[in-house]
Specification:
- Two copies of one chain form a homodimer.
- By secondary structure, chain A is an alpha+beta fold.
- Chain A folds into two domains: 257 residues, 4-Layer Sandwich (L-amino peptidase D-ALA esterase/amidase); 120 residues, ArgJ beta chain, C-terminal domain (Ubiquitin-like (UB roll)).
- Helix content of chain A is 32%, strand content 25%.
- In chain A, the strands form three sheets. The first copy, chain A, has a six-stranded mixed sheet with strand order 13-12-11-14-10-15. A five-stranded mixed sheet of chain A has the order 3-9-8-7-6, with helices on both faces.
- In chain A, helix 2 runs parallel beside helix 3 and helix 5 packs across helix 6.
- Chains A and B meet through helix 8, helix 9, strand 13 and helix 11 of A and helix 8, helix 9, strand 13 and helix 11 of B.
- Chains A, B: GO terms for molecular function: L-glutamate N-acetyltransferase activity, acting on acetyl-L-ornithine as donor.
């Protein structure tokens, strides 16, 4: 964890324990730092898993193996290494992941593909196998820890620990979700990495869990951006132990399926927002709401074009209601838009409607809104029913300092 | 022109006059500034024109009309307004452009569609018709000016005047190209705008001129980026008066067609580089060379993903040979790439080959290279024969200061 905490930081919430889930942390010493850096989570027999992974084609071995192994749907353990991302390390990096999977599967007497591994930190250096082995041995002997310890241990350049929780009634039974995430602080020479883990005691078919996670991902993690750059290691995994004793969610027609999906999406949204709130140099949290697009996906792309625009993000940093830059970003998104139907507002006040600045535009409420920490930008394309909200942070001197002023 | 000149500035070169081209400047007073802000270039009868325009769908009326009128291939005048972009101003903005076209075409007794207009500056405010009219009247009475005056007058937030020239032998006759450009400095609440004008005395069929310009554009203006944002007004026009007396270039089989195309591309490349060298906050000029892609277009897209990555650009600002960030940018480009075939170098020294850091990587020459003003990044994808070079600048505190510290 870094010293300077983000001004957008949120206190770590009380996160319930999840039956069948036992987190432990240990010190593998991947870096020369006085903190735990290996997280080991043991999962009860019968736990099912779903996952979403980075689309970066230069992904790490952890992502390759995770994407492959999530397909079989069962999980017994999660290992997260902090301080070394093991990315771009060729066959030696892959061997290090396979060694961890072999060690843990031998301990649990389970197939290796039920052991999921993530790594985050410096790239280009193969994860040291001896440190990983000793770290896991230490974790197996450690007392179980609480969620905040686990959230802190998976962190690298994060400035605060991040967690979220939700419950849902499934067939008359309360199921609970507890989740932690790290990201997206980056520090040279490392890359941004978002690693998120959701644990629930719900009984759910792995295919349904995967569908719920994929859908939630589209509206949450796929709708955030800090700087348009995409880590080679981004991973979100959901684990369901089934210990709540609810009737198994075997289809979307099952009682409580909607409630479970909504709870999962809520947790994903909270986690996604926390990542943005720890964006490098972030001083303001920005929600970009796009309506009137030809489709939801088109709205999402327009929203991301706005949220990734350095000119929009610096304008918000400067508390400047620069709707012209929003117009520019809409126009370059590559999606259907009509300059003369476009309306743009800030904090609920329209600045321009149907392609022209409002004659009676009242800048006072907009200026007051922009001085706050939570900013909203509203864009109505005036074409259809498609809508989406994406989230980002402003682009500040802090971002440059973190990413440029460092020398390797 | 701004006070603080870019450290990458290039002195304005000696630019030959072009027979049949008469530039003049005047003070329209679009802003409250003590400088000329209207450029009027009269073109001899028989001048042909070609153009390339922004792909931003929220483009200005100038761009809409220019794109439409360039199709008829003839031009008699160019008017460039600085200080007001006339973008996002609805029908009133369009009326202002049409008024300028009518005024000039009446003066020259030519069709209105042979008058080309560009505007750059503040958005959302219709170009004041009275100021434009008086400015053009003043320009018509003014003495002809030199290219440097014209280059300065089309500029807005540019920190230095930009020009380029070349010659070619066409059928035993020397033809000359002189060209000026402005961009891409931006100033809140304005947007980046790149406006470039190439004048030649060559005799060339308008369709051939358009093909030459479109091809050159693909390898020059379409290969530069400052911050990934796309102006609503970007325009490059080429005018050919035919006064050199060369045999008309009527096809690519004509004698000298290749030489003319090469000269045009050279001028476009020089202009494009000058725009990058005046990028906001730029301290370093970066050339990204991509080889081994599946196609030239794929190589260009990979190059732009690298050149647009805030993490890569801040690493160069920090003089950090952060090849991992280049890997990340390659992977997110959405183009074919294989992590384990990828090689990355800086200034001609490989840092990573075939997916792994070089064991004997010598960082000293790379560190020395990165301390310079002109940086090269080499990426070999190891897949095919496609190649491209794109150019950008680093991302510095200066960019944030220019774009965020300003308050409207």
């Amino acid at each position: 964890m870094s010293d300077a905490v983000s001004p957008l930081a949120v206190p770590f919430p009380p996160l319930p324990a999840i039956a069948g889930v036992t987190p432990r942390v240990a010190r593998a010493g991947y870096k020369d730092w006085g903190r735990c850096d290996l997280t080991y989570v043991e999962l009860a027999e019968g736990t099912v898993v779903a996952g979403v992974f980075t689309r970066n084609v230069c992904c790490s071995s952890e992502v390759e193996l995770g994407r492959q192994n999530v397909a079989q749907g069962q999980a017994r353990a999660l290992v997260v290494n902090a301080g070394n991302s093991n990315a771009f390390t060729g066959y030696r990096g892959r061997e290090a992941v396979e060694a961890i999977m072999a060690q843990v599967s031998a301990h649990l007497a389970c197939p290796a593909e039920q052991v999921f591994v993530s790594s985050t930190g410096v790239i280009g250096v193969p994860l040291p196998k001896d440190k990983a082995r000793a770290g896991i041995e230490a974790a197996l002997l450690a007392e179980p820890c609480n969620w905040e310890d686990a959230a802190q241990t998976i962190g690298t350049t994060d400035t605060f620990a991040k967690g979220a929780t939700a419950t849902a009634m499934v067939g008359g039974v309360k199921v609970t979700l507890s989740a932690i995430i790290k990201g997206s602080g980056m520090i040279a020479p490392d890359m941004a990495t978002m690693l998120g883990y959701i644990f629930t005691d719900a009984a759910v078919d792995p295919a349904i869990l995967q569908q719920c996670l994929s859908q939630a991902n589209l509206r949450t993690f796929s709708c955030i951006t800090v700087d348009s750059d995409t880590s080679t290691s981004d991973t979100v995994l959901a684990f369901a132990t089934g210990k709540a004793g609810n009737p198994v969610l075997a289809s979307f027609d099952s009682a409580g399926a909607d409630a479970f999906a909504a709870a999962l999406e809520q947790v994903c949204r909270e986690l996604a927002h926390l990542v943005v709130k720890d964006g490098e140099g972030a001083q303001k949290f920005i929600a970009v709401s796009v309506t009137g697009a030809v489709s939801d996906e088109s709205a999402r792309k327009v929203g991301l074009a706005i949220a990734n625009s350095p000119l929009v993000k610096t304008a918000i940093a400067g508390e400047d209601a620069n709707w012209g830059r929003v117009v520019m970003a809409v126009g370059k998104a590559g999606e259907p838009a009509d300059r003369d139907r476009l309306s743009i507002g800030f904090g609920g006040t329209w600045a321009a409607r149907e392609g022209q600045p409002l004659a009676d535009y009242d800048e006072a409420p907009v200026a007051a809104h922009l001085r706050g920490r939570e900013i909203s930008i509203e864009v109505d394309l005036g074409l259809g029913e498609g809508r989406a909200t994406v989230w980002t942070c402003d682009l500040t001197h802090g971002y440059i300092s973190i990413n440029a002023d460092y020398r390797s």
